Amino acid sequence: MQSLRSLPRAASAARAFSTTTPRHLAKMQLIGRLADQPELMPTSTGRELIRYSLGVSSTQRDENGNRATSWFKVASFVEGAQRDLLLSLPKGTQLYVEAEAKMDTYQAQDGTNRTSLNLLQRNFEALARPRRDTESSTTGAESDANAAEEPLSGVGQS
């Protein structure tokens, strides 16, 4: 095996991977169901923000046969046709979301310091809309997380 010192100078120069400055990256990819229809909200700067919550079910079941669900709050500044699509999606729609993740610390009203995970959507794809079965025996968030799927054809990536 050759050591790096014995390699010609040109070979070691080819090891440079990038000329751009390194950036910090915190990215999440989620597949889950909308807790409710996304909401359009104005910001203090005059821009409009879309907010929604996504429920992501665990693959493992507990001793009662139920899956745990983690809830994530997502914000989006998407515009144009993608904005209209996101705002039209009903509760229970299954989404694939790519988002930037950031941990923020703030002081709560009771004076304690709290930390929250903030997700800013970069891309999304609607995977399936829920099928509305009138004979469903489950209720609430569990029925949304376990709803039968109706695939979407050709519906949106941003």
Automatic annotation (TrEMBL):
SUPFAM superfamilies: Nucleic acid-binding proteins. GO terms for molecular function: single-stranded DNA binding. The keyword NAD does not apply. Residues 127-158 are annotated as: Disordered. Signal peptide: none annotated. One of its GO terms (biological process) is mitochondrial DNA replication. GO terms for cellular component: mitochondrial nucleoid. InterPro entries: NA-bd_OB-fold (IPR012340), Primosome_PriB/ssb (IPR000424), ssDNA-bd (IPR011344). Gene3D superfamilies: Nucleic acid-binding proteins. Keywords: DNA-binding. The keyword DNA-binding applies. This is SsDNA binding protein. It comes from Salinomyces thailandicus. The lineage of its organism: Eukaryota, Fungi, Dikarya, Ascomycota, Pezizomycotina.
